[in-house]
C-alpha cells in the first residue's frame, strides 16, 4: 500500500509564489542595505582619509620612552614620524612650523602634491599651498625663498629652493600640538623641538590602543573624522540599518497578512482537513515546508550577490541569522492562527446566519459611515497590518526626500562656494587703546585693486562667473533716535558695536559697494521697502540698508549675535530695527574723511534664497552704497572666482597666485577642499536617490500585493451585503468612506511619526542655535516633493481600494 505524505500548504503553487516574491523582495532590500552600508563606509573612509589622514591615533610631543615602546609594539602596523625643528618667521610674522617627516608619515597622511616634488636635498623645500597663499608667495617652482627659523633659542637665516607645493592638510587635521607646514630634508644645524608620531594598528586590532598606557603626561589624540571600523549603527550607516530592519518587519507583516487572508478564505478546507484527522501541528509543519521551499531560491540569489558585492562574511551571517530568527515569529503566529480554526465544519456558517439575521434590518437603516464601522470590526486586523506597512513606507519616503533635499542644499552651498578668493592689502586708518588694555587695536581699510589687475584676473575663458565688491567697516553711522534702538541698548561690545577713535561706543556697519547693474538686480529681488533710484544712488545721495530680525545673548564667555532665521538663539527674544525708515537721513562718520549725510532709499528685511553676495550676509545694518560715498572710483577689494569643475585649475592657480604675490593681495585657494566636500555630498545624494527609488518600488509592489489579496475578500463581502439587500451603490459609498478614513489615518500617522523622527534628530544636534522649525526649512523641506509623494501614494491606494467587481 502506497503512503502519501501530507501536503496541503506545501503543494499550493499560488501561496508558494506569493511567499517567494515577498521573501525575495525583502532579502533584496537587506542586500541593498548591506551593499549601501559597505559602499558608504568605504567611500566615506576613502574621502575622509584624503582630508584627515589614514592614521588612527597620534601622540604629540612624544617622549623617547613612549616612542620606543610604541615602535616595539607588535600590534601596530604603521607608525609615521614627524620632527618639528622650529617656527618659521616671514617678514617678522609667524608663518608656520618647519621640520622633517619619514616615508611612513607620507603614507599615513595621504598628503598630495599640487605640483612639483618632495624635497630630496638639503636646499629644497615643499610648502603647503595655503601657507604660500598667506605669505603672498606665488606657485612658481624653483624660486628662492628666504626664511627666518627659530629653533632651540637661536634664529637661523636660511634660503631654500621651492621644489613642491602640497595640498592643505594641517587646517583640517585634529591635532593638539605643532604640525609641519614647511617640509625639508634632515638638517643637523637644527635641533628637534618636538616629535609627533601617527599610528595605524593592524587591521581588526584597533581596540589594542585602549590597552596601551603612555607615561609622562603623553596621551593619544584619535582621528575621529575617519571611521576605521565598520559600524552598522554609525550616523552614516544608520539609515541603511533601519532599512534592513524594516525589510525584516516588512517580511513578517506581509507574510502574516497573506497567511491571515488565506486562512480566512480557506477556512472550510482547513476545517475539513481537521475533521479528517489533520492536527494543527501537521498543518503548521506543512506550512514550514512551504516556507522553506520558498526560501531556497531567494537565499541562493542573496548569497551569490553578497559574494559578488564583497559583503563581509560576518555581516552576511549575522543578517541572515536575524532574518531567519524573525521568521520563527511568523511560524508561531501561523500555528496560532491554524489552531483558532474550529473543528466543527458548520460552525462558521451557523455564525454567519446568526449575524445575517441579527443585522439584516439594521443595515438597511444605517448610513454608509456606520455600515463601514460595523464592517471594519470583522477584519480590523488585516486593515491594521496594511496601514502599518503603508505608514512605514511613507515615512521612509519622507525621510529619504528629507535627506535628498538636505544633501542637495549642502551640494549647492559647495557649488556656490568660490574656487579662489582674493583680497586687497589693507592700510592703517587709526588705532585705539583702552586705558586698562595693554594692546592697541589696529583699524585698517582695504585698498582698492587696480582695474587692469581686475580685468587680468577675470579674463580667463574657463571662468564660469566672478563677483567683485568693495568692503569697509571703519566708518560709523548715527541717526535721530539711535539711542532708542535695541542694538544700542543691547549691551553688546563686539560685532557691529565698537569704539571709535575717541573711545566712544558707536555702531560700525559693514559698508559694501558693488557694480550698479549687479546691485540693481539684487535690490529688485530683495528690497522690502522703498524703490531703487538709480540716479540718486549714483550721485551718492541715497543708500540701501539691511535691517533683518536678529537675536543675541550675552554671558560670562562673551556675546553672540545672529540675523539668520535658521540660527536664532532665542525665538522669544527677536528684535528688529524700528527707528530707521525709508527717507530718513543717516550720517556716515569717517576718521580721515568728512562726515557725509545720506538718505535711506530702501530697506531689505530678508534675503531671498538666490542671493549671490557671499560676504557676511547675515550682519544687520549692512549698507549698500555707491563709490561716491566711499570717496573712490569704482573700487574693488574682494574678487571671487568660479571655474568649471572639469577644468584643470592648476595652471590657473599658479598664474593667479603670481599676480596676487606681485600685488600684495591675499590669495585663498578653495579648489581642493571644495572638490573633496562636493564629491562627498554628491555621492550621498546618489545613494539617497537609489534608496528612495527602492522604497518607492517596494511601495508599488506592496499596494499591488494588497490588491491581489483583497479581491476575493471584497467580492465575498459584497456578496454578503447583496444577500442582506444592500444596494451596490450603497456598498460602493461605504467603500469610499472606508478608503478616505484609512487614507487620512495613514497620512496623519506618517506625518506625526516623521515629525517625531525629525525631533529626535533635532535633539541630537550639537548646535544650540538651531530651532526645531529649521528642520522644515529650505534645507530639508519641499512642499512640491512631499506633495508628489502623497499624491503617488494616494493614487495607488485609491486604485487598490476601489477595485471591486459588482455582483448583479
Helix content: 40-55%
| Helix-strand category | alpha+beta
Helices, by number, come to: 19
Low-confidence stretches: 348-361
Strand content: 15-25%
| Distance N to C terminus | 50 Å
Q: Could you say which overall geometry the principal axes of the C-alpha atoms support? A: globular
Major sheet characteristics = 11 strands, mixed
Mean pLDDT: 81
Rg calc: 36 Å
Overall number of strands: 27
Describe it.
The model is unreliable at 348-361 (pLDDT under 50). Strands 11, 14, 15, 18, 19, 20, 23, 24, 25, 26 and 27 form an 11-stranded mixed β-sheet that branches. A hairpin with a 2-residue loop joins strand 2 (76-90) and strand 3 (93-101). Helix content is 46%, strand content 19%. By secondary structure, the protein is of the alpha+beta class.
